[in-house]
Design brief:
six-stranded mixed β-sheet
Length: 407
């Protein structure tokens, strides 16, 4: 088997989306020599087919909320420290209620979040119309969450990778991982590609919905499934919105594991004054085709809340595949069945939001050899027994990489 490049790589990161980019960023910040490989180009998958919202209010558990709060604080820091712009904006977000019943339910949720320190304000009647004049006049009201933010995920991915490269990381686009090779003691030894092997002391699988395919090559079955989401982008509508919008059923659609396609409005202005509209959730395998019926459903929900959009046109549409896990929490950390193998996947629709804390956790495991803060919430071992050969399970910890070179 041929070998690719110099053997001076400590960690190979597989996957050039925003999660892989964040892993490379924090690993290089810890002094590790990183090589990231991406089968297409950075942010070519789900990281370019998403809404870029950094939310707290849609998190379904205290654990997920804790991850979001830590990660969004990191995003705010990164927005100031990264050399490249990521279009980070902290404008808050409005959760819209069509009926009095929906508004009452949204207020109950807001009170729960307030006890966790997530602030909000109820708006109705003239106050809501003054806040967002383009909204339909018959809405019962809305909850405003001022701490919510947004960014451009494509720009953020690129900025993280550029920062990692300045610290010495290598990024190989157009290079697909086809498997993993194990060495002595069942430890991961190399990433296998069509062009040869890349040796490393640790491998981070951050390949989104394709992560399970890679880990299966060494007998580990990750409980991650693709969940399709579709988005459309309108023609320019300058000034139509002041804040991102989500309808009150959005959180339920996020948390649902229903097989049927779910549609809930998400609307946000882009830096170019177009409007990004979503979104759907559907288990459709690896099908990334755009459904006309789904786009019609998204458009109908958008016009319901923003009647002026009836005069706008659709400029483009696209679909992405979210990596869904059964408990709606990502899998981040070591796979004890295969020493040296780490996973960073299963974020579903929260991958943009949780990318920085994921990278920080991965770097803590690999550079320090111990569970960093918040790592217990996302350890892969909670799905123990997901080993195809039956030889082992996802289990305990890891050890730090040996210090050498510039360590």
């Amino acid at each position: 088997m041929s070998h690719l490049g110099a053997p001076q790589t400590d960690v190979v990161v597989v996957g050039g989306g925003i999660v892989g980019a964040a892993c490379a960023y924090f690993l290089t910040a810890s002094g590790l020599r990183v090589r990231l490989i991406e089968r297409d180009f950075p942010a070519s998958g789900t990281s370019r087919a998403c809404d870029g919202l950094l939310l707290h209010h849609d998190k379904g558990s205290a654990a997920e909320l804790a991850l979001a709060r830590a990660s969004n604080a990191l995003w705010e820091e990164l927005s100031r420290s990264l050399d490249a712009g990521i279009e980070y904006r902290r404008q808050g977000a409005l959760v819209l209620a069509e009926s009095a019943e929906a508004l009452a339910a949204a207020q109950v949720r807001a009170l729960e979040l307030d006890r966790e320190g997530v602030r909000s304000e109820t708006l109705a009647g003239g106050a809501l119309r003054e806040f967002e004049p383009a909204l339909a006049p018959d809405l019962a009201g809305a909850i405003y969450y001022p701490g919510e933010a947004q960014l451009d995920a494509r720009l953020a991915t690129r900025a993280l990778l550029e920062a990692a490269q300045r610290r010495g990381a290598t990024v190989d686009a157009g290079l697909a991982a086809t498997g993993l090779r194990l060495g002595a003691g069942g430890r991961v030894a190399a990433v296998v590609t069509a062009a040869g092997e890349i040796a490393a002391e640790a491998v981070v699988c951050a390949a989104g919905v394709w992560s399970a395919e890679l880990t299966r090559s060494v007998g580990v079955d990750l409980p991650v499934r693709p969940r399709k989401g579709e988005i459309l982008v309108t023609s320019r509508v300058p000034g139509l919105l002041r804040h991102p919008l989500l309808e009150s059923s959005y959180t339920a659609s996020v948390q649902s594991a229903a097989a049927a396609t779910g549609v809930a409005l998400v609307a946000e202005m882009t830096a170019g004054d177009t409007l990004l509209l979503g979104s759907t959730r559907q288990f459709a395998g690896f099908d990334r085709s755009v459904s006309t019926a789904a786009l019609h459903a998204i458009a109908a929900r958008a016009v319901r809340f923003l009647p002026a959009l009836a005069r706008a046109s659709v400029m483009r549409s696209y679909a992405g595949l979210r990596p869904w896990s059964p408990d709606h929490m990502p899998l981040v950390g070591p796979v004890a069945a295969v020493p040296g193998l780490f996973v960073a996947t299963g974020h579903e629709g929260a991958g943009i939001c949780l990318a920085p804390v994921t990278g920080q956790i991965i770097a803590g495991w690999i550079a320090g050899g111990r569970a960093p803060a918040l790592a217990e919430l996302v350890r892969p071992e909670r799905f123990a027994g997901e080993r195809t050969s039956g030889e082992a399970t996802l289990g305990e910890g890891t050890s730090p990489l040996p210090r050498k070179g510039r360590f």
